[in-house]
Design goal:
The structure holds 2 protein chains of 2 kinds.
Chain A (H helix, E strand, L loop, with lengths): L1 H16 L1 H27 L1 H4 L8 H4 L7 H17 L4 H6 L1 H7 L4 H34 L6 H31 L3 H30 L10 H15 L3 H13 L14 H7 L8 H32 L5
Chain B lengths: L1 H36 L5 E5 L3 E5 L4 E9 L5 E9 L4 E6 L7 E4 L3 E11 L6 E11 L5 E11 L10 E5 L3 E4 L4 E10 L5 E8 L5 E6 L8 E4 L4 E9 L7 E10 L4 E10 L5 E5 L5 E5 L4 E9 L5 E9 L5 E5 L2 E5 L4 E9 L7 E11 L5 E12 L3 H24 L3
Classes of the chains: A mainly alpha, B mainly beta.
Chain lengths: 319, 408
Amino acid sequence: MQGLVAVFRKELQDQLSSYRFVILFALIAMVSFITSYMAAVHMRENLESLTATRFPFLMLFSTPGVMFSMVQFVAFFGPLIGLVSGFDAINRERAQGTLIKVISQPVYRDAVINGKFLAGVTTIAIMFTAILLVISGFGLSLVGVVPGVEEILRLFIYLVISIFYIAFWLGLSILFSILFKSIATSALASVALWIFLSFFVSLGAEVAANTVVPIDRKNETPPEAVLQHARIQEAVSLCSPMVLYSNATATIIDPMRKTTRSIILMGPMEELLSTRFQNPLALGQSLLVVFPHMIALIAITVICFAISYAVFMLQEVRT
Amino acid sequence: MRLKRNHPPCVVGCFVAALFAATLFPPFAFGETQKRDLPPRAIYVSPEYTGVTIPQGNDVSIDLMVSNRGQKDENLDLKLISVPDGWKTWIKTYDFGVTGVHLKSDSQKNLTLRAEPGKDVVPGNYTVVIQGQTEDHQLTSTGQVVITIQEKTEKKRPEGVNIVTSYPVLTGPTDAKFEFSVEVENKSDKEGIFNLAAQVPENWTVNFKPAYEDKFISSLRLKAGQSQTMAVEVKANPWAKPGEYPVGVKISSPEAEGQVALTVILTGTFKLDAGTASGLLSLPAVRGEASLLSFYVKNTGSAPLNNVRFISFQPENWKVSFTPESIDTLAPQELKQVEVSITPAGKALVGDYSVGLRVESGTPPKADKTLEMRVSVTASAAWGWIGIGLILFVMAGLVFLFARLGRR
């Protein structure tokens, strides 16, 4: 245990004092602030419409500022934080020969990987909490709305999901740094996987859906076929952690959203009667809607770390 | 020749004389004969009616014709030679009493005979005899009038108060206000305060109002001979059965009283009410699972409601069923409980839906009521536990790895 604390402390020190971290943090913080600032200015111009919504504070995060909202931005570029802080975790130690030195100390081998992973997660948590708090402060001073209890709870859940999401990418990059001896290879592999999962999976989902249920744009397609097309596309794109994350957070941040699906089939009576009460969902119901997504995110994060752990523990260290 | 000469003037003279006689004499001859036809002296005293009937308490005025049919002008003395006891009788013209009259030859005068019975005159026949006599007492004429006094049938009526209405029967639903317009007339010669009272079925309310004024009154001051219109507002017992109900209005003062009978015909009302016992119109429901709600249906009208049925407006693929499905008859004031089961579709989105429950009675519907329920559809938490189980399983795997591979 003592070894774990020592490795954790040292690793945290290294992370927070590195230029890499400072540059990354500055980049992420700047983009987030600008996005939220634009959203806040936009909200202030339309203060009248704010009275209709029950949770104006959450709109700071869900309203698109310039091109995308804060939530969307984190979904796309949040993984970079995880990747950058983890891609050289083990193989740099190996290349510099410090790994053997550490292990020759009275420190267990699992303390090294546990400490590195925990330190990475802590860095991400600090960074993300700070950004969230600063944006909330922005909202308070710029728009002048005070968040309610439910809004704070929703923000907290958003924060937890985000940390798990970035921790998944951290675990993935640590796994690559264990698997590949070369730092460049592991960095490249991480970024490649990130691009594939984030951008190409959605394209692949479209292709898969078109293959199974072809949709003729010129002719009327029956609504059932359109629905099945959308189902297949959604199912395939759920392979991407980014889709999991953005579906989950969009529903948590926007209480009016009642489903994570993009297309649903509704009868005319159902549509009429459900729009009769324009009510936001209770927090518990929102959570239940995105619970599968949250479970999946947490599970892949834990599994990813477990694989890195097992591979590292079974690896030959001395060579 | 001479003879011949003499003849013509004689003929002419005769002709002229005859012509004279023909042209001049006839009028003379007529006048003379008419005047000559009249008796030298003749007078008549005759009343216009020789027999009259009056109700008790009324007076009599009869024209009296006095005429001279003789050739000579006459001065007549007029006398009432027989007057019944207790009567006041005299002859008069417009302004004054008359005891004598001058009549020219062949002329006539109209006078008035006035007879007033005293207060204690009982009903019966009375004869008044009038005598006219010339100054020289040579000619006398008498006329007589028989006055029959009839007993009055309604004793108090002329001295009291009269109450009438133009529309004595009003028809309407039980919850309507019936407003009768009643005219009250004080027939006595004294001002008086009249109390108003009404006789109605039990639990009905009656208010008296002056016409065009929104005040409730219970008595009325009327000057002698004054009449006033007032409104009688009747409100039926809301639970009265349909039918015909009498309403008696009585107006009375110490001296007099009047009555009028009014009628209200109630047609009954068709009304129903529905709601939940707690007043709560929201219902939580888990998708795919039935949730139960009980509401009541009450007949708040006064007529029985037949064929009460339930209709629901719900989203597609939802199931709404009622127990019982319909009620044959619902008596007035009767309350019945209805169970409704609402099952949201298995794939319904979470959120609030509006579900309308409509209660209708009769065809075409005479009474209806719609309850709008807010059904909050929630997701089942069962999958949540499975997810937590999954996470625990993964964590257990990690702990197993730690235990298996750790401490190397």
